[in-house]
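Students often ask why inverse folding is considered easier than folding. One informal answer: many sequences map to the same fold, so there is more than one right answer. In these notes we will look at a single instance of the problem. The structure comes first.
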């Protein structure tokens, strides 16, 4: 017979990447990118969690298929539908899209990026 631990109310459940990142297992895919985009937090070689069951909205990061190639882009719906290259604000970096066009398809919405920071090289020299 003992007393309950006073810290018992503060014990959290274990963190599970499956429960955190994969809300719909039947429509979720993991994709490794070759090139990243530091501006939005995707490093080279990152693993993206892509949910094909999420409806893309204005500003969503999406995995799209353009002319048979998979690409990661930002979806812009206003003032006209376009896929914007990540990290570039240049007007020439956008691809105007016809949402009914057969040569382009949005596969899913990128919901998480898992980065390997152990092997990330930085050119920043810390000041001490």
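Output (designed amino acids):
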């Amino acid at each position: 017979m003992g007393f309950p631990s006073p810290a018992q109310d503060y014990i959290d459940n274990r963190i599970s990447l499956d429960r955190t990142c994969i809300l719909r297992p039947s429509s979720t895919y993991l994709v490794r990118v070759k090139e990243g985009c530091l501006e939005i937090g995707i490093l080279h070689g990152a693993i993206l969690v892509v949910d094909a069951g999420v409806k893309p909205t204005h500003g969503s990061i999406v995995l799209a298929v353009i002319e048979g190639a998979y690409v990661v882009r930002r979806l812009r719906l206003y003032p006209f539908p376009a896929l914007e290259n990540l990290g570039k604000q240049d007007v020439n970096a956008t691809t105007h899209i016809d949402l009914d066009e057969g040569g382009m398809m949005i596969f899913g919405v990128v919901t998480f990026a898992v980065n390997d920071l152990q092997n990330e090289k930085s050119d920043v020299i810390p000041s001490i």
